[in-house]
Design brief:
Elements lengths: L1 H28 L1 E8 L6 H20 L7 E8 L4 H13 L4 E3 L4 H13 L3 E4 L6 H4 L6 E3 L4 H15 L4 E6 L3 H15 L6 E7 L8 H10 L3 E5 L2 H13 L5 E4 L6 H7 L7 E5 L6 H14 L7 H18 L4 H10 L2 E3 L2 E3 L12 E7 L2 E6 L1
Parallel strand pairs: 1-2, 1-3, 3-4, 4-5, 6-7, 6-8, 8-9, 9-10
Antiparallel strand pairs: 10-13, 11-12, 13-14
């Protein structure tokens, strides 16, 4: 009798286990898993957290309308702190969780570290902010897309503005030694040297990220008699360099990139931020979809959106629109849809070229005036 009861119990438990596993598999197949990877902590969290909020808003709207092809979209949010070593860990973690597509990463170094891992598993990754040119131009990452222009376009604008608008000749080019900052600085240096004598690089040097004191490089800038500094990197280093320059009464123009075109730079540098130039995504604030997305953020989170919010909003829309048009999350089908299907976004009507760069996306020049960044030139 005991043997019979034991046998029946084992069969019953096996049936329950089979039913649970079957239900779990069915549920997993009935959702679309969108990874959202980026800096959600640390000094560069102000770049990554707006992307999380953008994804949440887009996904909430889509799910409220029934999802995509009857499937709900779920978010898998992972923090890489903009560090390459964490970027690869996050990619591995997302793959283990069964991610279908990824919106992120934020910084070029972490993005590059993650891309090879995604590539092996045919996972499409789209960044709202990783601008390093080789990510698309090398051909090494056919699974990568972005809703922001690359650093060569950004460096071109910075150099042209320095030479043609500010009318300077002697320029110091600095960078933070990272994939993003150094890559941009190399393009800036190249453009200056090929300017037909209009400009001269009087100093080219990398600085150590996270240092407390940059007085040595500030002194080099002063000795070089540079009329302008072009800096490739992020706001923590830029704010310290600018503050130390201004405290030494140096009126040298300071021109940087979208890694500095963030309100956090202004908050940290305070009054010393005034007059600083930085390139950033073109202002699309008059676009009705941009207005609607911004108002939605304000209503939901009680604050204005941060850096790259609209780029991330557009990236999320583009990815999910491609899944919808493809009718699946299959790699080749989604890739084809990204390159052939236009989608209306806060950045305008976009699709992607064969390299993965968004068509119709560009940069503008901004300057800090009265404590805010104001667009001064496109």
């Amino acid at each position: 009798m005991k043997k019979k009861i034991g046998k029946n119990l084992i069969i019953a438990m096996s049936l329950i286990f089979f039913a649970c596993c079957t239900f779990g598999t069915s549920f997993a197949q009935d959702v679309i898993k969108l990874g959202v990877a980026g800096a959600h902590s640390g000094d560069l969290a102000s770049y990554g957290l707006p992307s999380v909020k953008a994804a949440e808003l887009v996904v909430n709207d889509i799910n409220a309308m029934g999802g995509i092809n009857g499937k709900k979209v779920v978010l898998l949010i992972e923090d890489d702190a903009c560090k390459p070593e964490l970027g690869s860990n996050v990619a591995t973690k997302l793959l283990s969780a069964g991610v279908d597509i990824v919106m992120g990463h934020i910084c070029s170094g972490a993005t590059k570290a993650a891309l090879a891992i995604y590539k092996e598993e045919n996972i499409i990754c789209m960044s709202p902010s990783a601008t390093n040119p080789p990510l698309t131009q090398s051909g090494d990452y056919p699974n990568f897309y972005r809703t922001i222009a690359s650093d060569d376009a950004q460096a071109r604008l910075e150099v042209d503005y320095a030479l043609d608008v500010l009318k300077v000749k002697k320029i110091a080019v600095l960078h933070d030694k990272g994939d993003y900052g150094k890559g941009l600085a190399e393009f800036a240096k190249q453009f200056i040297e090929n300017s037909g004598g209009k400009g001269q690089v009087v100093l080219y040097e990398g600085v150590t990220p996270g240092a407390v004191d940059y007085s040595a490089v500030v002194q080099k800038i002063k000795r070089s008699k540079a009329e302008a500094v072009i800096f490739g990197g992020y706001h923590p280093e830029a704010s310290k360099i600018v503050m130390q320059m201004r405290k030494k009464r140096m009126n040298t123009y300071f021109i940087s990139d979208d890694g500095v075109k963030d309100d956090t730079f202004i908050k940290v540098a305070g009054k010393y931020a005034e007059g600083v130039y930085a390139t950033g995504p073109m202002d699309t604030s008059n676009n009705p979809l941009a207005i609607a997305a911004t108002e939605k953020h304000q209503k939901t989170y009680g604050a204005d959106p941060g850096a790259f919010f609209l780029n991330a909003y557009a990236a999320t829309q583009a990815l999910l629109n491609a899944v919808d048009k493809a009718g699946s999350t299959e790699y080749q089908a989604v890739s084809n849809a990204l390159k052939t299907e236009w989608v209306e976004t806060p950045l305008g009507r976009i699709k992607f070229d064969d390299k993965g760069d968004a068509i119709g996306i560009g940069f503008a020049m901004y300057q800090v005036k009265d404590g805010v960044y104001v667009e001064v030139s496109k």
